[in-house]
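SEQUENCE-TO-STRUCTURE ENTRY
===========================
Question of interest: how does this chain fold, as expressed in backbone structure tokens?
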Amino acid sequence: TSVTLILSAMVTTQTPATEKYPMSIKALKAYARLDFEGTGANRKQWLCLNKVWQQESHWNYHAVGDKTSEGRAYGIAQALPANKMNDIKKDWHTNPYTQIQWGVKYIRLHWHNNACAAWKNELRKGWY
């Protein structure tokens, strides 16, 4: 579909400006899935990542976590501290696509691209 083509193009380019791209949860999930599958993740891993981010933020790119000694987690992937997302782009406060790219990178590096292990940890400890 045309949405898939647009989202595919966004995955292969820079973080899109949110004013120009869809902001619905459906569009954000489609983008995240393409980005995550671009790292070699399969459908099972995607389903786990979706569960993690649903649990953490309900896909709300303005979600703010409880206060901790490191500050408050922020965004779809609940980055803590939130400014870690500067590694992707400095617009992370307002751009869910930047947050998704950071979250996918976090899963790839911290969880060795195993979102199901992250989900198990989320269920066991309440964080991933």
